[in-house]
Specification:
15% strand; single chain; 47% helix; Rossmann fold; five-stranded parallel β-sheet; 234 residues; alpha/beta; binds zinc ion
């Protein structure tokens, strides 16, 4: 096993794209995995292929470290969950206070499968873009949950496996700043143009911060983070 190697959970969104750059700046060997769980914004799966191809062209040093990409079919997750991310439902808040976009168990399933891939590929770290700072309240994005995931994977596979979450304490403005620090305007431009965040899968409108409906919670976070980063600290 290579200790300086990683598997990035790359969805095709802004956060995981920044994580991928972060991983490439730190690890010698990096692979990527994505999940098709019949999300309404499945367009992100198309974006990830374009993003990877353009990243390779723009950053030859990173391209040399970037290995296989795979997309795992998780249609079963769409079957067992009844949420606004996997069904035609309004995006709002459920009675328990959680957004209707919460897909129960999603990150637990993602990390378990990513752990299985990493085990087979000899990769030591799993990297995800989960964040507690301005997140939507998803309990499986909390670092405490991911500490438990890390412990259970390490025990269950009898191999050291770390779960790295570089965005955990950053807000969306700081995530844009991180991308800028790692790859300059080339990386920022690539994230704007070829990642996807909008829950509704809308790529009709091109805003300064990228494509999206402009009004779903994911678009609002991305747009607010962008303007905060562009205008700087007030
Ligand atoms: Zn949107």
């Amino acid at each position: 096993m290579t200790t300086n190697s990683a598997l990035v959970l790359f969805s095709g969104g802004q956060d995981s794209a920044a994580c991928l750059a972060w991983a490439l700046a730190r690890h010698e060997r990096v692979e990527t995995v994505g999940f098709d769980y019949r999300q309404r914004h499945r367009v992100e799966l198309d974006c990830r292929q374009v993003f990877l191809a353009k990243l390779r062209m723009a950053f030859p040093d990173w391209s040399a470290k970037l290995g296989e990409d795979r997309v795992l079919d998780l249609g079963v997750l769409g079957e067992v969950s009844d949420t606004a991310l996997t069904r035609e439902q309004a995006i709002g808040f459920a009675e328990n206070g959680l957004p209707s976009t919460f897909v129960p168990g999603r990150n637990l399933v993602f990390f378990t499968l990513a752990g299985a891939v990493a085990y087979r590929r000899g990769l030591g770290a799993l990297i995800g873009g989960m964040c507690e700072t301005d997140y939507s309240g998803y309990p499986d994005c909390r670092r405490a949950t991911l500490d438990a995931v890390q412990a259970s994977l390490t025990l269950g596979m009898d191999r050291d496996m770390t779960v790295e979450t570089p965005l955990m304490h950053l807000d969306k403005a700081q995530t844009w700043a991180l991308a800028d620090a790692l790859g300059g305007h080339q990386l920022v431009d690539l994230i704007v143009e070829d990642t996807h965040t909008c829950y509704l899968g809308d790529r009709t409108y091109r805003h300064a911060w990228g494509y999206g409906c402009g009004s779903c919670p994911a678009c609002e976070l991305r747009a607010n983070g962008w303007s905060k980063w562009r205008t700087g600290p007030s």
